[in-house]
Amino acid sequence: MQLDIALFRTILSKDLMDVMIRVGLIVFLVLMAVKIFAPFMGLMLWALILAVTLYPLHLRIVKRLGGRQGLAATLLVIAGLFLIGGPITVLGSSFADYLIGLHTTFENNTITIPQPDAAVAGWPLIGDKLYALWSQAANDLPGLLAKAKPQLETAFKLLLEFVASMAGGAFSFMGSMIVAGIMMAYGESGSAAMRRILSRLAGPNKGPGLHALSTATIRSVAMGVIGVAFIQAVLLGAGFIWADIPAAGVLAFIVLIFGIAQVPAAIVTLPVIIYIWWSGDSTGDNIMYTVYLVVAGMADNVLKPLLLGRGVDAPMPIILLGALGGMVASGIIGLFIGSVLLALAYQIFMDWVADGESVDAAQDDLQAPDETSQASLASD
Protein backbone atom coordinates (compact mmCIF):
# COMPACT_ATOMS: atom_id res chain seq x y z
CA MET A 1 0.00 0.00 0.00
CA GLN A 2 2.80 2.37 0.92
CA LEU A 3 4.55 1.45 -2.35
CA ASP A 4 1.43 2.37 -4.34
CA ILE A 5 1.18 5.71 -2.56
CA ALA A 6 4.86 6.47 -3.23
CA LEU A 7 4.48 5.52 -6.89
CA PHE A 8 1.36 7.68 -7.15
CA ARG A 9 3.18 10.65 -5.60
CA THR A 10 6.10 10.20 -7.97
CA ILE A 11 3.85 10.10 -11.03
CA LEU A 12 1.83 13.05 -9.76
CA SER A 13 4.90 15.17 -9.03
CA LYS A 14 6.38 14.33 -12.43
CA ASP A 15 3.15 15.24 -14.26
CA LEU A 16 2.74 18.41 -12.18
CA MET A 17 6.30 19.45 -12.99
CA ASP A 18 5.67 18.89 -16.71
CA VAL A 19 2.48 20.97 -16.55
CA MET A 20 4.22 23.81 -14.69
CA ILE A 21 7.08 23.86 -17.22
CA ARG A 22 4.66 23.95 -20.15
CA VAL A 23 2.53 26.69 -18.58
CA GLY A 24 5.66 28.70 -17.76
CA LEU A 25 6.89 28.41 -21.34
CA ILE A 26 3.50 29.46 -22.71
CA VAL A 27 3.34 32.48 -20.38
CA PHE A 28 6.91 33.44 -21.33
CA LEU A 29 6.14 33.20 -25.06
CA VAL A 30 2.94 35.22 -24.68
CA LEU A 31 4.67 37.97 -22.69
CA MET A 32 7.55 38.19 -25.16
CA ALA A 33 5.16 38.23 -28.13
CA VAL A 34 3.15 41.06 -26.53
CA LYS A 35 6.34 43.01 -25.78
CA ILE A 36 7.57 42.63 -29.36
CA PHE A 37 4.18 43.49 -30.86
CA ALA A 38 3.43 46.40 -28.48
CA PRO A 39 5.09 49.15 -30.61
CA PHE A 40 2.81 48.22 -33.52
CA MET A 41 -0.35 47.68 -31.47
CA GLY A 42 -1.99 51.02 -32.25
CA LEU A 43 -1.14 50.84 -35.95
CA MET A 44 -2.46 47.29 -36.29
CA LEU A 45 -5.65 48.00 -34.33
CA TRP A 46 -6.45 50.97 -36.57
CA ALA A 47 -5.63 48.90 -39.63
CA LEU A 48 -7.95 46.12 -38.44
CA ILE A 49 -10.75 48.61 -37.76
CA LEU A 50 -10.35 50.20 -41.19
CA ALA A 51 -10.19 46.81 -42.89
CA VAL A 52 -13.37 45.59 -41.18
CA THR A 53 -15.17 48.86 -41.92
CA LEU A 54 -14.19 49.07 -45.58
CA TYR A 55 -14.37 45.37 -46.43
CA PRO A 56 -17.95 45.47 -47.85
CA LEU A 57 -16.89 48.27 -50.19
CA HIS A 58 -13.79 46.26 -51.07
CA LEU A 59 -15.95 43.29 -52.06
CA ARG A 60 -18.03 45.49 -54.37
CA ILE A 61 -14.89 46.75 -56.09
CA VAL A 62 -13.58 43.17 -56.37
CA LYS A 63 -16.82 42.17 -58.08
CA ARG A 64 -16.44 45.02 -60.59
CA LEU A 65 -12.79 44.10 -61.27
CA GLY A 66 -13.45 40.44 -61.89
CA GLY A 67 -12.19 39.07 -58.58
CA ARG A 68 -8.78 40.82 -58.44
CA GLN A 69 -8.34 41.29 -54.68
CA GLY A 70 -4.97 43.04 -54.78
CA LEU A 71 -5.97 45.63 -57.37
CA ALA A 72 -9.22 46.38 -55.55
CA ALA A 73 -7.40 46.88 -52.25
CA THR A 74 -4.81 49.14 -53.91
CA LEU A 75 -7.45 51.35 -55.53
CA LEU A 76 -9.38 51.59 -52.26
CA VAL A 77 -6.27 52.56 -50.30
CA ILE A 78 -5.32 55.26 -52.82
CA ALA A 79 -8.85 56.67 -52.77
CA GLY A 80 -8.90 56.58 -48.97
CA LEU A 81 -5.57 58.40 -48.73
CA PHE A 82 -6.88 61.15 -50.99
CA LEU A 83 -10.21 61.41 -49.18
CA ILE A 84 -8.59 61.45 -45.75
CA GLY A 85 -5.43 63.34 -46.63
CA GLY A 86 -7.24 66.05 -48.60
CA PRO A 87 -9.41 67.44 -45.78
CA ILE A 88 -6.57 66.96 -43.28
CA THR A 89 -4.24 68.95 -45.54
CA VAL A 90 -6.79 71.76 -46.02
CA LEU A 91 -7.60 72.00 -42.31
CA GLY A 92 -3.93 71.72 -41.36
CA SER A 93 -2.98 74.44 -43.84
CA SER A 94 -5.68 76.72 -42.46
CA PHE A 95 -4.50 75.99 -38.93
CA ALA A 96 -0.86 76.69 -39.81
CA ASP A 97 -1.73 79.92 -41.63
CA TYR A 98 -3.69 81.10 -38.63
CA LEU A 99 -0.84 80.36 -36.22
CA ILE A 100 1.71 82.09 -38.48
CA GLY A 101 -0.53 85.12 -38.87
CA LEU A 102 -1.19 85.26 -35.13
CA HIS A 103 2.54 85.05 -34.35
CA THR A 104 3.37 87.77 -36.88
CA THR A 105 0.67 90.03 -35.47
CA PHE A 106 1.98 89.56 -31.95
CA GLU A 107 5.55 90.26 -33.05
CA ASN A 108 4.56 93.48 -34.84
CA ASN A 109 2.10 94.62 -32.15
CA THR A 110 -0.52 95.27 -34.82
CA ILE A 111 -3.47 93.71 -33.03
CA THR A 112 -6.31 96.17 -32.58
CA ILE A 113 -9.06 95.42 -30.08
CA PRO A 114 -12.15 97.65 -30.00
CA GLN A 115 -13.33 99.26 -26.78
CA PRO A 116 -15.93 97.21 -24.89
CA ASP A 117 -19.52 98.29 -24.72
CA ALA A 118 -20.61 99.76 -21.40
CA ALA A 119 -23.29 97.09 -21.13
CA VAL A 120 -20.59 94.45 -20.63
CA ALA A 121 -19.95 95.79 -17.12
CA GLY A 122 -23.54 94.99 -16.21
CA TRP A 123 -23.26 91.29 -16.99
CA PRO A 124 -23.82 89.14 -13.90
CA LEU A 125 -20.84 87.64 -12.03
CA ILE A 126 -18.13 88.33 -14.62
CA GLY A 127 -19.18 91.73 -16.00
CA ASP A 128 -16.84 93.99 -14.01
CA LYS A 129 -13.74 91.82 -14.39
CA LEU A 130 -14.39 91.19 -18.07
CA TYR A 131 -14.93 94.90 -18.74
CA ALA A 132 -11.68 95.83 -16.95
CA LEU A 133 -9.67 93.16 -18.78
CA TRP A 134 -11.20 94.10 -22.14
CA SER A 135 -10.48 97.81 -21.56
CA GLN A 136 -6.87 97.10 -20.65
CA ALA A 137 -6.45 94.98 -23.78
CA ALA A 138 -7.93 97.74 -25.92
CA ASN A 139 -5.77 100.49 -24.38
CA ASP A 140 -2.49 98.72 -23.62
CA LEU A 141 -2.35 95.28 -25.24
CA PRO A 142 1.50 95.00 -25.18
CA GLY A 143 1.50 95.66 -21.44
CA LEU A 144 -1.20 93.05 -20.85
CA LEU A 145 0.69 90.52 -22.96
CA ALA A 146 3.91 91.25 -21.08
CA LYS A 147 2.19 90.45 -17.79
CA ALA A 148 0.78 87.21 -19.19
CA LYS A 149 3.99 86.21 -21.01
CA PRO A 150 4.78 83.10 -18.87
CA GLN A 151 1.22 81.79 -19.26
CA LEU A 152 1.27 82.51 -23.00
CA GLU A 153 4.58 80.71 -23.46
CA THR A 154 3.23 77.66 -21.62
CA ALA A 155 0.02 77.70 -23.65
CA PHE A 156 1.94 78.08 -26.92
CA LYS A 157 4.24 75.18 -25.99
CA LEU A 158 1.24 72.97 -25.23
CA LEU A 159 -0.35 74.03 -28.50
CA LEU A 160 2.76 73.10 -30.47
CA GLU A 161 2.93 69.71 -28.75
CA PHE A 162 -0.73 69.17 -29.56
CA VAL A 163 -0.20 70.08 -33.21
CA ALA A 164 2.82 67.76 -33.45
CA SER A 165 0.81 64.96 -31.88
CA MET A 166 -2.06 65.48 -34.31
CA ALA A 167 0.32 65.52 -37.28
CA GLY A 168 1.92 62.30 -36.09
CA GLY A 169 -1.52 60.79 -35.60
CA ALA A 170 -2.54 61.75 -39.14
CA PHE A 171 0.55 60.10 -40.64
CA SER A 172 0.02 57.03 -38.45
CA PHE A 173 -3.58 56.85 -39.60
CA MET A 174 -2.49 56.94 -43.24
CA GLY A 175 0.01 54.17 -42.52
CA SER A 176 -2.83 52.17 -40.98
CA MET A 177 -4.79 52.67 -44.19
CA ILE A 178 -1.99 51.02 -46.18
CA VAL A 179 -1.82 48.07 -43.77
CA ALA A 180 -5.63 47.81 -43.93
CA GLY A 181 -5.35 47.41 -47.69
CA ILE A 182 -3.08 44.40 -47.20
CA MET A 183 -5.56 42.94 -44.71
CA MET A 184 -8.45 43.42 -47.12
CA ALA A 185 -6.55 41.66 -49.89
CA TYR A 186 -6.45 38.58 -47.61
CA GLY A 187 -9.81 39.30 -45.99
CA GLU A 188 -11.48 35.95 -46.60
CA SER A 189 -8.75 33.88 -44.99
CA GLY A 190 -8.37 36.35 -42.12
CA SER A 191 -12.11 36.36 -41.42
CA ALA A 192 -12.21 32.56 -41.48
CA ALA A 193 -9.29 32.38 -39.04
CA MET A 194 -10.96 34.82 -36.63
CA ARG A 195 -14.21 32.85 -36.86
CA ARG A 196 -12.33 29.63 -35.98
CA ILE A 197 -10.67 31.32 -32.99
CA LEU A 198 -14.00 32.58 -31.61
CA SER A 199 -15.59 29.19 -32.24
CA ARG A 200 -12.79 27.56 -30.29
CA LEU A 201 -13.26 30.01 -27.38
CA ALA A 202 -17.06 30.23 -27.29
CA GLY A 203 -18.07 26.98 -28.95
CA PRO A 204 -19.12 26.16 -32.52
CA ASN A 205 -22.67 27.40 -31.93
CA LYS A 206 -21.79 30.80 -30.42
CA GLY A 207 -18.53 31.59 -32.24
CA PRO A 208 -19.95 32.63 -35.65
CA GLY A 209 -22.57 34.83 -33.95
CA LEU A 210 -19.94 36.62 -31.85
CA HIS A 211 -17.79 37.08 -34.94
CA ALA A 212 -20.70 38.67 -36.82
CA LEU A 213 -21.55 40.86 -33.82
CA SER A 214 -17.96 42.12 -33.48
CA THR A 215 -17.77 42.96 -37.18
CA ALA A 216 -21.13 44.73 -37.21
CA THR A 217 -20.28 46.71 -34.06
CA ILE A 218 -16.98 47.99 -35.48
CA ARG A 219 -18.71 49.09 -38.68
CA SER A 220 -21.55 50.69 -36.76
CA VAL A 221 -19.23 52.74 -34.53
CA ALA A 222 -17.02 53.70 -37.47
CA MET A 223 -19.99 55.03 -39.43
CA GLY A 224 -22.17 56.24 -36.54
CA VAL A 225 -19.52 58.01 -34.45
CA ILE A 226 -16.32 58.64 -36.41
CA GLY A 227 -18.03 58.94 -39.79
CA VAL A 228 -20.75 61.31 -38.59
CA ALA A 229 -18.24 63.46 -36.70
CA PHE A 230 -15.98 63.63 -39.75
CA ILE A 231 -18.85 64.55 -42.09
CA GLN A 232 -20.07 67.22 -39.71
CA ALA A 233 -16.56 68.65 -39.26
CA VAL A 234 -16.10 68.86 -43.05
CA LEU A 235 -19.50 70.52 -43.54
CA LEU A 236 -18.94 73.06 -40.78
CA GLY A 237 -15.32 73.62 -41.83
CA ALA A 238 -16.50 74.47 -45.34
CA GLY A 239 -19.04 76.84 -43.81
CA PHE A 240 -16.38 78.51 -41.66
CA ILE A 241 -14.14 79.03 -44.70
CA TRP A 242 -17.11 80.28 -46.76
CA ALA A 243 -18.01 82.82 -44.04
CA ASP A 244 -14.34 83.86 -43.75
CA ILE A 245 -14.13 82.90 -40.06
CA PRO A 246 -10.65 83.20 -38.52
CA ALA A 247 -9.01 79.86 -37.64
CA ALA A 248 -11.58 77.89 -39.65
CA GLY A 249 -9.36 74.79 -39.60
CA VAL A 250 -8.96 74.95 -35.82
CA LEU A 251 -12.71 75.27 -35.31
CA ALA A 252 -13.42 72.37 -37.68
CA PHE A 253 -10.96 70.17 -35.81
CA ILE A 254 -12.62 71.11 -32.51
CA VAL A 255 -15.98 70.13 -34.04
CA LEU A 256 -14.46 66.76 -35.01
CA ILE A 257 -13.20 66.11 -31.47
CA PHE A 258 -16.52 67.23 -29.96
CA GLY A 259 -18.42 65.02 -32.40
CA ILE A 260 -16.38 61.96 -31.44
CA ALA A 261 -16.93 62.79 -27.75
CA GLN A 262 -20.69 63.17 -28.42
CA VAL A 263 -20.63 66.86 -27.47
CA PRO A 264 -23.07 69.06 -29.46
CA ALA A 265 -21.51 71.11 -32.24
CA ALA A 266 -23.62 74.08 -31.08
CA ILE A 267 -20.86 74.85 -28.57
CA VAL A 268 -18.75 75.92 -31.57
CA THR A 269 -21.40 77.10 -34.04
CA LEU A 270 -23.26 79.48 -31.70
CA PRO A 271 -20.18 81.65 -30.93
CA VAL A 272 -19.35 81.64 -34.66
CA ILE A 273 -22.87 82.81 -35.54
CA ILE A 274 -22.60 85.55 -32.91
CA TYR A 275 -19.27 86.61 -34.43
CA ILE A 276 -20.82 86.68 -37.92
CA TRP A 277 -23.62 89.00 -36.84
CA TRP A 278 -21.25 91.14 -34.77
CA SER A 279 -18.68 91.65 -37.52
CA GLY A 280 -20.74 91.24 -40.71
CA ASP A 281 -22.33 94.14 -42.59
CA SER A 282 -24.63 92.33 -45.01
CA THR A 283 -27.81 91.03 -43.43
CA GLY A 284 -28.50 88.71 -46.37
CA ASP A 285 -25.09 87.07 -46.14
CA ASN A 286 -25.43 86.75 -42.37
CA ILE A 287 -28.77 84.97 -42.78
CA MET A 288 -27.29 82.54 -45.33
CA TYR A 289 -24.28 81.77 -43.13
CA THR A 290 -26.49 81.30 -40.08
CA VAL A 291 -28.92 78.95 -41.81
CA TYR A 292 -26.09 76.85 -43.25
CA LEU A 293 -24.23 76.56 -39.94
CA VAL A 294 -27.41 75.68 -38.03
CA VAL A 295 -28.36 72.96 -40.54
CA ALA A 296 -24.81 71.56 -40.71
CA GLY A 297 -24.56 71.63 -36.92
CA MET A 298 -27.72 69.51 -36.64
CA ALA A 299 -26.64 66.95 -39.27
CA ASP A 300 -25.57 64.47 -36.59
CA ASN A 301 -29.13 64.32 -35.24
CA VAL A 302 -30.23 62.90 -38.60
CA LEU A 303 -27.20 60.75 -39.48
CA LYS A 304 -26.50 59.15 -36.10
CA PRO A 305 -29.84 57.30 -35.67
CA LEU A 306 -29.48 56.00 -39.23
CA LEU A 307 -25.93 54.70 -38.86
CA LEU A 308 -25.21 53.97 -35.19
CA GLY A 309 -26.30 50.50 -34.16
CA ARG A 310 -27.37 49.54 -37.67
CA GLY A 311 -27.15 45.78 -38.24
CA VAL A 312 -26.04 45.10 -34.64
CA ASP A 313 -27.85 42.65 -32.35
CA ALA A 314 -27.46 45.05 -29.43
CA PRO A 315 -29.38 48.21 -28.52
CA MET A 316 -27.96 51.54 -29.65
CA PRO A 317 -27.52 52.79 -26.02
CA ILE A 318 -25.25 49.80 -25.33
CA ILE A 319 -23.10 50.64 -28.34
CA LEU A 320 -23.00 54.34 -27.42
CA LEU A 321 -22.14 53.70 -23.77
CA GLY A 322 -19.39 51.28 -24.77
CA ALA A 323 -17.96 53.79 -27.24
CA LEU A 324 -17.95 56.65 -24.72
CA GLY A 325 -16.56 54.55 -21.89
CA GLY A 326 -13.88 53.11 -24.12
CA MET A 327 -12.87 56.56 -25.33
CA VAL A 328 -12.53 57.81 -21.74
CA ALA A 329 -10.37 54.78 -20.87
CA SER A 330 -8.25 54.42 -24.02
CA GLY A 331 -8.74 57.43 -26.30
CA ILE A 332 -10.20 57.28 -29.78
CA ILE A 333 -9.20 53.64 -30.30
CA GLY A 334 -11.24 52.86 -27.19
CA LEU A 335 -14.39 53.87 -29.09
CA PHE A 336 -14.19 50.60 -30.98
CA ILE A 337 -12.72 48.42 -28.26
CA GLY A 338 -15.26 49.57 -25.66
CA SER A 339 -18.27 49.25 -27.93
CA VAL A 340 -17.24 45.78 -29.15
CA LEU A 341 -16.54 44.48 -25.64
CA LEU A 342 -19.78 45.88 -24.21
CA ALA A 343 -21.80 44.53 -27.15
CA LEU A 344 -20.22 41.10 -26.74
CA ALA A 345 -20.82 41.15 -22.99
CA TYR A 346 -24.45 42.14 -23.57
CA GLN A 347 -24.95 39.39 -26.15
CA ILE A 348 -23.33 36.72 -23.95
CA PHE A 349 -25.41 37.81 -20.95
CA MET A 350 -28.66 37.76 -22.94
CA ASP A 351 -27.78 34.32 -24.35
CA TRP A 352 -27.26 33.11 -20.79
CA VAL A 353 -30.64 34.52 -19.81
CA ALA A 354 -32.27 32.88 -22.84
CA ASP A 355 -30.65 29.53 -22.00
CA GLY A 356 -32.10 29.74 -18.49
CA GLU A 357 -35.56 30.51 -19.86
CA SER A 358 -35.35 27.57 -22.28
CA VAL A 359 -34.39 25.22 -19.43
CA ASP A 360 -37.32 26.45 -17.33
CA ALA A 361 -39.68 26.00 -20.28
CA ALA A 362 -38.41 22.46 -20.84
CA GLN A 363 -38.99 21.60 -17.19
CA ASP A 364 -42.51 23.02 -17.36
CA ASP A 365 -43.19 20.88 -20.45
CA LEU A 366 -42.00 17.76 -18.60
CA GLN A 367 -44.16 18.52 -15.59
CA ALA A 368 -47.28 19.23 -17.64
CA PRO A 369 -47.83 15.60 -18.84
CA ASP A 370 -47.38 14.33 -15.26
CA GLU A 371 -50.04 16.71 -13.97
CA THR A 372 -52.35 15.72 -16.84
CA SER A 373 -51.92 12.01 -16.14
CA GLN A 374 -52.54 12.54 -12.41
CA ALA A 375 -55.71 14.45 -13.16
CA SER A 376 -56.94 11.68 -15.48
CA LEU A 377 -56.24 9.02 -12.83
CA ALA A 378 -58.10 11.03 -10.22
CA SER A 379 -61.12 11.31 -12.51
CA ASP A 380 -61.09 7.56 -13.14
Question: Topology, pairings included?
Answer:
Layout: H1 2-37, H2 41-64, H3 69-108, H4 127-139, H5 141-147, H6 149-185, H7 187-202, H8 207-242, H9 248-260, H10 266-279, H11 283-297, H12 299-307, H13 316-330, H14 333-379
Description of the molecule:
It is a single chain. Helix 13 (316-330) packs antiparallel against helix 14 (333-379). The chain is mainly alpha-helical and 380 residues long. The chain has helices spanning 2-37, 41-64, 69-108, 127-139, 141-147, 149-185, 187-202, 207-242, 248-260, 266-279, 283-297, 299-307, 316-330, 333-379. Among the domains are: 41-146 and 168-185, no CATH class; 216-351, no CATH class. The protein contains 14 helices and no strands. 85% of the residues lie in helices and 0% in strands. The mean pLDDT is 77. The radius of gyration is 30 Å and the shape is elongated.
Task: List low-confidence stretches.
Answer: none
Describe the largest sheet. Answer: none
Give the quaternary arrangement of the chains: single chain
Content of β-strand: under 5%
Radius of gyration: 30 Å
Structural class of the secondary elements?
mainly alpha
* Share of helix, binned: over 70%
Shape: elongated
Distance between the termini: 63 Å
Element-by-element helix/strand order: HHHHHHHHHHHHHH
The count of β-strands is 0
